[in-house]
Write a structure and sequence with these properties.
Layout: E1 4-9, H1 28-37, E2 45-48, H2 55-59, E3 63-64, H3 76-93, E4 99-104, E5 114-115, H4 126-138, E6 143-147, H5 154-160, E7 166-173, E8 197-202, H6 207-226, E9 230-235, H7 252-262, E10 266-269, H8 279-290, H9 311-327, E11 345-354, E12 359-368, E13 377-383, E14 386-393, H10 399-412, E15 420-425, E16 430-435, E17 439-442
Amino acid sequence: MKQTGILFFPAFDWSLGDSHPEREERLLYTQEQLFEEGILDLPQIKQFSPRVAELKDVLRTQALFPNPGAHTDGLDPHLIAVGSSLLMGEAQVKGMIHNGFVMARPPGHHSGATVWGNRGFCSLNNEAILVNHLRARYGKRRIAIVDTDVHHGDGTQDIFYHDPDVLFISMHQDGRTLFPGTGFTFEKGGPNAWGQTLNIPLPPGIGDDGYHYLMEEWVLPLVQSFAPEMIINSAGQDNHFTDPLASMNLTAEGYGRITELLQPDLAVLEGGYSIEGALPYVNLSILLALAGEDYHHVREPQKMKRNSIPLSALKPYVQELKKQFETLKPNFKYQAKDFFPAGNWVHSPHSVYYDTEGFQETRHDYIRECSHCPGTLYIESRRYTQKSALIRIPFHACPACEEAGYDLWEHLQKAADISSALLQNQLYDQEFVWERKEGMRQF
């Protein structure tokens, strides 16, 4: 019998406020619903207990600035959400389960390659850390992440934007109408991973038929042609027609059909803030679909009050987006600093707004163009007067990119304007943190 894993972590000790949409009750009603329906008694359902991730698991994927120690006090619930994702991923890889659903909070998909604090309710990126854990420890290589949260998964995109071995797809409400204001079709990947990022910005109110059409017409063919070893669903549930933060019209049954179509190896909970009206029913529908049970009878108590966009009106919009994506050509800006090793370096300046804490991060990203590997990445990141740096030697780095990473790391330790830096040597699964006051340490 194919078993479906399930793991609950409500994070009772982590809250952004009693009236905040991301609060402890998000999973309590779901637990009660699953108990009442007898779902946990099904023979193919296997429950798991949470575990805590190590800081090394995080630093393999994300840089915690200005230094890892500055985040330690507030990271415990986030590390448990990460650790729970790792545990379930390992269970799937080892054949203990066929698929699984990680129902843990806090969420993570707005947390990117550099982390100065919490944004979009996220501090650590659960799915991204899981992906790199499975690559480093279990030899996985090609992984697809399909983000069905109503908000663009900008943090996950940021982490894998230059990685040709990770296909990232985000279908979300148009960034011109919703946080974080990103996720357009021209965001298609870096020079070594062009076309491995697909964003599908959607008009509000497309409903079940629209989502299912998108899955069948565009998402599934792209996933199938990529031929991933594993599919991970960032299972945001704020597309539901009762969600207070967004304006889409998806139903619980519609979520079940998305899950049935995608057939993810793992679903990891992201957003979803209709705590009583949606989450118990959406989670139930997703879990039933994963377990191969009938989800069509799942009905939420409220009735939809808004009309959905007719599929006949949506199809031309989707076809135009698809045409834009397929015909868009690269237009990269090349720029190198004086100390950069030989090669063509693509420069991408941008800023990241931390809405939870109200500050701006200024970033300058440089990727070494390479036809043999994902390329060495160099990021300078500034918050106020603090300036830190990240160097990433990628999985499967070629000798030239590996050497470039070491040269940059040597330079940073002599740079007068850098207060801290992280070297992610994914090639050998080594992480080094350097701080001007404390020196260097390895994780």
